[in-house]
Amino acid sequence: MEKIDQLWPDGWQFLFDDTLFQPGTDSFLLGAFPKCKRGEKVCDLGAGTGLLGLLLLARESTVHITNVEIQRPACALARRTAELNGLEASISCVEGDLRDTTLLPAGSFDVVIANPPYFAADTGAQAESDARRTARSEVTCTLEDVCTAAARLLRWGGRFFLCLRPE
User: Fold this and answer.
1) Is the Cα dihedral 131, 136, 141, 147 positive or negative?
2) How far apart are CA 18 and CA 11, in angstroms?
3) Per residue in 34-87, pLDDT tens?
């Protein structure tokens, strides 16, 4: 079911769907951690509905966020969140596989962020829906895939931030 929430009272709103991946504590922690500089280009790999980028933009209004997401419904919600807040000039959404080396030009980002799937494929309890399984488990990409994509997309001296279980 599609839902809407706010980052702060009377502030930016964000859309999410509990059949996809719901915002969690790690999303908000990761969104508060990177210190972005004026005008930097930020790529969120596996962006889901775009919450991380919105959190970074709330802290530094001059950054440009590029969300990369393989799931069409999540990408659509990220686009609608940008429109809802009038942020179309600051947020773009690329629907595609982060492993695709032709998706975005190499060396084009100052910062890459990711909240990658935590669980190896076919281990532990499996999410019921394909959408949630894709967000939680390494069924479409692995941690190595995410790190490889980040290394390719970052300019020399760029910074990579991710949230991952300590195990």
Assistant:
1) positive
2) 22
3) 999 999 999 999 999 999 999 999 999 999 999 999 999 999 999 999 999 999
